[in-house]
Amino acid sequence: MADTVFTIDGLTVTFGEFCAVDDVSLKVRRGSITGLIGPNGAGKTTLFNAITGNLSPDRGTVTLNGKQVTGLPPDRLFAMGLGRTFQIPRPFARMSVLENVMLAPLAQIGERLTGPFLSARAVRAQEKEIRVRAMEVLEFMTLSPLADHPAGKISGGQMKLLELARVLMGDPEIILLDEPAAGVNPTLAGTLIERIEDLNQQGKTFVIIEHDMDFIMRHCDPIIALAQGKVVFEGTAVEAQSNPILLDAYLGARVDA
Ligand SMILES: Nc1ncnc2c1ncn2[C@@H]1O[C@H](COP(=O)(O)OP(=O)(O)OP(=O)(O)O)[C@@H](O)[C@H]1O
Ligand SMILES: [Mg+2]
User: Fold this and answer.
1) What confidence tens digit (pLDDT) does each residue in 18-48 have?
2) Which of 23, 68, 91, 177 has the largest count of CB atoms under 10 Å?
């Protein structure tokens, strides 16, 4: 298998006159936990959105396992093994935690069903299978005691774990996490990182946006920094700590490409 799980080439996203992602090219190493850092407004979330089909880039390409996938919708990419979480979790607040997790694969299976020809028994069998899998995933994420709680009533940190649980239902090969530790208490953040490292050991590749430098430095390799829509650094944690460009980016100084 190739070393690179996905490649971005010349990706550019503009909002009117403003260029949020400016000609970004990078490769993500298979099996890595890649960290994506940069000041507020650097274009990190916009870059994720352009990769996962949540918005169309103006220019550039995204190649996933050697296939050009630029502009494909998020559900197609999810089916191809690319999952993501959002900076602000958006669970269905009135549904239970378990139902929220069960919905993730239903959206996909629903497309394959041939409605009137599917027997009630087959539907029940399928639902049971999904429920069992959802409970396993909740257990893994330490959320099973909350399975029956309304998703709108759990803490912000638990919602972040729920987001990852939903993504895991699809068993994606690559998972993009947008600020998974933001607003999460240290205990839950510890659980989250343990789970990420377990999944990484099992072969999953992660790209993680985080402002928490301690989290990034400890767990991510390589680290990529964006500033004003451009990649300004790529290297190890040790290299990051002694890199003057990163200091500039974090102080908000202008960074010339
Ligand atoms: N839909 C949009 N319309 C117009 N401008 C947008 C839109 N989405 C993002 N932007 C702008 O693009 C820039 C990059 O935003 P983005 O959300 O990607 O930053 P970020 O690096 O994720 O920041 P943060 O760390 O605060 O989450 C910002 O200036 C933002 O205001
Ligand atoms: Mg963001």
Assistant:
1) 999 999 999 999 999 999 999 999 999 999 9
2) 177
Domains and CATH numbers, the chain: 4-251 (3.40.50.300)
**Nearest alpha carbon to residue 257 among 232, 229, 223, 225:** 232
Q: Is the CB of 201 under 6 A from ligand 1?
A: no
Q: Enter the pTM of the model.
A: 0.90
Q: What is the pLDDT of residues 70-119, one digit of tens each?
A: 989 998 999 899 999 988 888 889 999 999 999 876 554 444 555 556 67
**Residue 234 to residue 87: CA distance in whole angstroms:** 23
Cα 226 to ligand 2 centre (Å)? 11
To test the pocket of ligand 1, the residue of 19, 36, 44 to mutate (highest count of ligand atoms within 8 Å of its CB) is 44
* Residue 38 near residue 249 (C-beta atoms within 8 A): yes
Neighbouring-strand partners of residue 207: 34, 176
CA of 38, closest atom in ligand 1: 21
Q: Determine the pLDDT at residue 110.
A: 46
Q: Strands, E, within the chain: which ranges?
A: 4-15, 18-29, 33-37, 59-64, 67-68, 82-84, 174-178, 205-209, 223-227, 230-235
CA distance 32 to 173: 11
